[in-house]
Amino acid sequence: MKRGTFQLMKSVNKSTILNKIRLSEPLSRAQIAQETGITPPTVSSIVKELIAENLVEESILGESRGGRKPTMLLIKRNGHFVIGIDAGSNAIKGVATDLVGSILSETEIQILPHISKEYFLQTLKEVVRTIFMGIDDKKKILGIGVAMHGVVDVSSGVSLYSSNSGLRDIPIKEELEKEFNVMVMVENNSRAMALGEYWFGNHEEVDSFVAINIGRGVGSGIVDKGRLFYGAQDIAGEIGHMTMDLDGELCSCGNRGCFETFVTGEAIVRRAKEKIKEAPKELTAEDVYKYAKEENKPYIDILEETGQLIGIGVVNLIHLLNPNKIVLGGGVLNSAEFLMKDIRQTIQERALTEKARMNTVIEVSLLGKNSTILGAAALLLVEIF
Ligand SMILES: [Zn+2]
């Protein structure tokens, strides 16, 4: 589907109704009218449009107290498909999903750390092609959403800089649109993850939502009233580079003592080696978790300290944005069982007000490794819903 097709047909009422169905399906027309305040005739005519556009379908699941069962409305599962791509630092993954985020097919190609721009694009296209060819009815493909690590210019869909490969100025959107002739959206991976969590993570609708990705680096995405928040120069959410220690460790960004230098997998290993004399030379973050699980106290201490440090970053975020909910994801959160107690305790100790301490919801991502790729798919859905 070409860019713009859906925006032209979109209206406030239509978005409201479609989102109402998405979040609370199955719903009857009467329930939609009641819960949105839109008049029943308007609901009926918009629902008719949504059914004609293959976005919504009727089912007969409804219950009524006597009389005829009302016809219930659902998001149409196989009405449209979206291709989601997670272009990470060591692999490019692709999925096809339906409109409710069920993954229908997936593929993955590993990439080497120092590849050329051409090789990257070629691999990216190969991943998209595999998924694209697997969908029989190409007309049902709404588009391709790409979550790219590093700095992305969202309007042009260009990857400006990826720290792992060192590549600059990759015209992802242009190349994919030329090749596949569908709408393409490109977004930074942490922002995509936030959107994926917001859309598919089974969170109730909240005004202000932040997802923090802690893995090789630390990034976050801010979702404000259902939309990603970028700031004036597109760097809103770069909490990995908040300074926590003026004289701290050198960060990949060139500054010292960034949040990232305390809590990434690499930072956990560094702190473990500093504090545990008998730590093996080739220790990995996975090993730290493994030893902690084996009830090896020094390693448990390292992870609990990591929880405190993450907690401090989270408190800074609470003071800056005061979100309703913060979701934590990324590789480091695989060891959440050793982190969460101290993250929560640090918030209790440091957040400014009782309400902020008690009411800020902190959760671990339920979507796990799929949150970024589903977020990539959601980039397209935001345009429609
Ligand atoms: Zn930094």
CATH superfamily of the largest domain, called what?
A: ATPase, nucleotide binding domain
Q: What is the domain total for the residues?
A: 3
The radius of gyration over CA amounts to 22 Å
Number of helices: 14
Beta-strand residue fraction: 15-25%
Second CATH tier, the architecture of the largest domain: 2-Layer Sandwich
Query: Largest beta sheet: what is the strand line-up?
Result: 6-5-4-7-11
CATH class of the largest domain: Alpha Beta
Written as H for each helix and E for each strand, in order along the chain, the element string is HHEHHEEEEEHEEEEHEHEEEHHHHEHHEH
> What structural class do the secondary elements suggest?
alpha/beta
Ends apart, CA distance between termini: 15 Å
Kindly state the percentage of residues in helix: 40-55%
Contiguous low-pLDDT stretches (5 residues minimum) are none
How many β strands by DSSP? Answer: 16
Biggest beta sheet summary: 5 strands, mixed
Name every ligand kind in the structure.
Answer: zinc ion
Q: State the shape.
A: globular
Query: Please, what is the average pLDDT?
Result: 91
CATH topology of the largest domain: Nucleotidyltransferase, domain 5
Brief summary:
By secondary structure, the protein is an alpha/beta fold. It is built from 14 helices and 16 strands.
